[in-house]
Design brief:
The chain is built from 3 helices and 11 strands. The strands form 2 sheets. The protein has a 6-stranded antiparallel β-sheet with strand order 3-2-5-6-7-8, with no helix packed on it. A 5-stranded mixed β-sheet has the order 4-1-11-10-9, with no helix packed on it. It is α+β, with helices and mostly antiparallel strands. About 25% of the residues are buried.
């Protein structure tokens, strides 16, 4: 048995030695060019529209208004979200709003399915900006006015943002979608 292991190890070492000799026979310039070409061929497609290449399944985002006041919620679909948006840099994360909903106080709600998901909620002169995304690798997250919250299944998080109280919930997976909720507790 010891002889068998030794012969397998020797064969593997011979294969490694042959492959390293092959790379050396290419010469340093050709070898460098081969490595660079390989890296570029992988990096270029990943950098073109990288946000959309790394998306997982869609998010079924439910918005619930449990504040005592009516609010306006505007959502934008995939393709109309400014994926380079940084809170405070300009007015809206949406290039185009698809839906506008008036959600009455005390439980008004609606659900929209998208990935990524953008939503703006307004009450009087106060505005909250929500951006949610489910990457193919990593945890789904919701960003509220620049405060990013990555969430595991079953997690419930309360945030106080810009004078408002918001509860974020990552409920689980249902019908092939990530189920998440934005709950407005108060708008201040």
């Amino acid at each position: 048995m010891h002889t068998f292991r030794t012969s397998v190890v020797l064969k593997e070492e011979a294969v490694v030695e042959r492959s390293s000799k092959h790379l050396r026979s290419l010469g340093p310039r050709r070898c460098t060019a081969l490595v660079v070409a390989t890296l570029v061929s992988v990096a270029v497609p990943a950098s073109v529209n990288a946000n959309y290449l790394t998306l997982g399944v869609k998010i079924a985002m439910r918005t619930v208004n449990n504040s005592p006041h009516g609010i306006t919620a505007s959502s934008c679909p995939t393709g109309y979200i400014d994926t380079d948006y940084k809170f405070g840099t300009h007015n809206s994360l949406c290039k185009y709003f698809l839906d506008h909903h008036h959600l009455s106080g005390g439980g008004g709600r609606f659900t929209y399915t998208s990935n990524p998901f953008g939503e703006t909620i307004r009450y009087k002169h106060k505005t909250l900006y929500f951006y949610a995304r489910n990457p193919s690798v990593g945890l789904p997250f919701i960003e509220v006015n620049g405060d990013k919250v990555s969430m595991v299944e079953g997690e419930l998080v309360t945030r106080h943002v810009s004078g408002a109280t918001v509860r974020l919930h990552r409920e689980g997976d249902r019908e092939g979608h990530k189920q998440m909720t934005i709950e407005i507790i108060s708008m201040g």
